[in-house]
Amino acid sequence: MTRLEQTQKGATDNLRDIVNLAKGARVMLTRNIDTSDGLENGAFGTVDHIDLSSDENTCVFVAFDNERVGKKQTPERSESGQTKPVAIKMHEESMTSASHVIRRQFPLKLAWGCTIHKTQGMTMDKCVVDMADIFAPGQAYVTLSHVTSINGLFVHNYDLRKIYRCEDVHKHVQDMTTVPQLCDVEGPSDTLLSVVHHNVQGLRSKVPDIDNYEEMHADALTTNETLLKASDPDHSVYINDYVVERQDRPSNTGRGGVAVYVKDSIARRRLETGVQSIKHVAVTLTKDTHDVCCREHLQTSSTEHSDIWCIPQTPAELHR
To answer: Which residues contact 159 (CB under 8 A, 6 or more apart)?
Structure first.
């Protein structure tokens, strides 16, 4: 392998041509290193220091915002009680813009801010939102809803006209049949099934959060964007007291994917629907005399949906 003296200009999906870094810089990971450890594309952090002791082993140490990111690498904590920074090494990739060229670069970029698309799946205590370039329905809601408190929300270029819905989606929602309320009981019940849905944006890194946060627990947990591969074993996404049924994205890409968790005390039966055009999971749950069919499905495009079907008595009385 011959080292090129002049940097080749890469495509947008390549590792970056040049990465300017310094202690204290805000950065974002641009590659999935270990999704089970939270080291995935979009993880934010701050450069703690850079180890330049060797050209071959140069590392950028990043203190990630989420303390669970990189926990496998640094299980111990520093004397101050803070999680130790995680070592990010150079990655090698073939360049799509130049044949027979391999780039070695840190999978990082400066990120004092990010696009609304990148905030999906995030929860933040504080956030500055710039509404100037919002161009699509629902974008404003997506970014505003990720902040845990109104006191932590700061809006720049506020424009009420940028907060609007997609009328086509609204029309379809209005056309949907409402599931009838089965009873007036609030809270847990021996005759009702509770279902919670999570858009997890990477299941393996979110399992500890779901497992430890009891308020998320229900009789069934439905998830999409699991980002699992067929080679990922079920025990890597195990949640206490639950059994998982999953459908990973085909071709072992590790993108998309859906899963349904069912409490191990509830009878379940996976349904084979015979539908090939939509990748999905269909599971019938039985709690006393009530059946609920939980269908988590994804289309062949990148758009995913989830439906909960209630079956009061017979299949003919199917409500959506």
So the answer is: 131, 132, 134
Please count the residues of the chain.
320
Distance between first and last Cα of the chain: 60
39 and 160 part of one domain: no
- In one letter, which amino acid is 128? V
Q: Are residues 157 and 182 in the same domain?
A: no
Q: How many CB atoms lie within 10 A of CB 217?
A: 17
Q: What is the pLDDT of residue 290?
A: 47
Mean pLDDT by 10 residues, the chain (320 residues): 62 75 92 81 90 78 88 65 81 73 86 82 81 90 84 92 90 72 55 81 80 80 85 88 87 72 89 76 73 45 39 34
Q: Does one domain contain both 203 and 284?
A: yes
- Token pair in block for residue 11: 């495509």
The 3 state secondary structure assigned to 165-213 is CCHHHHHHHHHCCCCCCCCCCCCCCCCCCCEEEEECCCHHHHHHHHHHC
